[in-house]
Write a structure and sequence with these properties.
Layout: H1 4-7, H2 21-35, E1 57-64, E2 69-74, E3 80-82, H3 91-106, E4 121-128, E5 134-140, H4 146-159, E6 163-170, E7 182-185, E8 192-196, E9 199-203, H5 213-230, E10 234-238, H6 244-248, E11 255-260, H7 263-276, E12 281-285, H8 288-294, E13 301-304, H9 313-322, E14 326-331, H10 334-342, E15 347-355, E16 365-372
Parallel strand pairs: 5-6, 10-11, 10-13, 11-12, 13-14
Antiparallel strand pairs: 1-2, 1-4, 2-3, 4-5, 6-7, 8-9, 14-16, 15-16
């Protein structure tokens, strides 16, 4: 893949830009096996991704002025850089950015100046669904511009009929986060449907969803295949997000519980379960570790998809001592995965797979099926 922004030094987020894709893939595979100590298990062929047009979500910093905004990022000096033509974003994301740039001026949304701590519009968060519908979230410092957003929104919707959900997210604090806690929905629809394999996953504004839809679909298919092979009667999906793993692992004779701290994600998951007719799947708002430690029973299979920091000692310790027969671990950080595996020596890797979620970067996504080999 070729990128003019990278060649010009304007954006270096894709650190492997220019490296042939087969080399990227082989290097990632070797790195994963090295960090995990090359455990004696079969490795399935890596799941490849398109080299470009794969990011379904763009988190764009807004800079410049209302009349001439930049949509992209801030460089190390704090200078705003416009990368609205970014080639790793889906065409659906790129298609709406020019109209959004004009809308910023029409609605008088002054971009936030990080150094001066002035202005209103901090970010544009744009999500593109497989069906071509789009969610746009305006991250604002205060509620003051919301009235102008409402006033001019009909014209924007007329110009971009693919917009399904538009919101204002309020982030009053000056800190290194992308969004705040309060969301104001400005459209009739409040969820974006992400069609993944044979399921409709409903995505609410503050819900997490994998950034690469095609590779996420392959990840869920792999989880379903392993689960069906094991045929567990009960499954826990810890860190369940919008319910992708839980719903793919569901079955007519299988009880599935998903646990997630985000109430928005759980609301999304419950809606998806209802639409799928998954009556034996339920979702709870809560901390995954606290849920496990307080439980009075142990499922046949535990699915974990933790954040980059990994499971941590309390949960990995519980899994080691619990007696659970199988764990399906989906990891976005092979280093924390290695630490967690070392803390669970009775749960040995039975199969693994690299899923290339972020081409052009050093990021590694790994799915590992663990099986208990000794009594807990």
């Amino acid at each position: 893949m070729h990128c003019d922004y990278f060649d010009a030094g304007a954006c270096r987020s894709c650190t492997l830009m220019g490296t042939p894709y087969p080399v990227q893939l082989s290097d990632r595979t070797r790195r994963v096996r090295e960090v995990l100590g090359d455990p004696p298990m079969p490795w399935l062929p890596p799941v490849e991704s398109p080299e470009s047009d794969y990011r379904n979500k763009a988190k764009m910093v807004v800079g410049g002025t209302a009349d001439a905004p930049t949509i992209g990022l801030l460089d190390r000096s704090g200078r705003a850089v416009d990368i609205r033509g970014c080639g790793v974003c889906t065409p659906g994301v790129r298609a709406v950015l020019p109209a959004l740039a004009e809308f910023i001026g029409t609605a008088g949304l002054t971009p936030y100046d990080v150094a001066a701590r002035r202005g209103e519009l901090k970010y544009l968060l744009v999500t593109d669904s497989p069906g071509g519908r789009v969610m746009v979230r305006f991250v604002l410092r205060s509620q003051e511009p919301v009235a102008r957003l409402r006033k001019h929104l009909p014209a924007l919707l007329a110009r971009l009929p693919q917009l399904e959900v538009v919101t204002a997210n309020l982030l009053p604090e000056h800190k290194a986060v992308v969004e705040g806690d309060r969301e104001i929905v400005l459209t009739q629809a409040s969820t974006l449907t992400m069609r993944v394999n044979d399921l409709d996953l409903h995505l609410r504004p503050q819900s997490f969803f994998q950034t690469n839809t095609s590779v996420a679909a392959a990840l869920y298919r792999q989880a379903r295949e392993w689960t069906d092979e094991l045929a567990p009667a009960s499954v826990w999906d810890l860190y369940c997000g919008v319910g992708g793993f839980a719903l793919h692992c569901a079955g007519p004779d299988r009880d599935v519980v998903g646990v997630e701290t985000s109430a928005e994600a759980v609301a999304s998951a419950r809606l998806s379960a209802r639409d799928a007719g998954a009556t034996r799947v339920r979702f709870e708002v809560g901390d995954a570790t606290a849920f496990a430690l307080a439980a009075t029973d142990v499922p046949d299979l535990v699915v974990v998809n933790p954040p980059r920091r990994g499971l941590g000692a309390p949960l990995s310790g519980w899994l080691e001592e619990s007696g659970v027969r199988h764990v399906l671990y989906s990891s976005c950080n092979v280093t924390s995965l290695a630490a967690d595996l070392a803390a669970m020596p009775s749960l040995r890797p039975r199969a693994g797979r690299l899923l290339d979620m972020f081409p052009q970067t050093t990021h590694q996504e790994v799915a590992v099926l663990l099986e208990r080999t000794a009594p807990a």
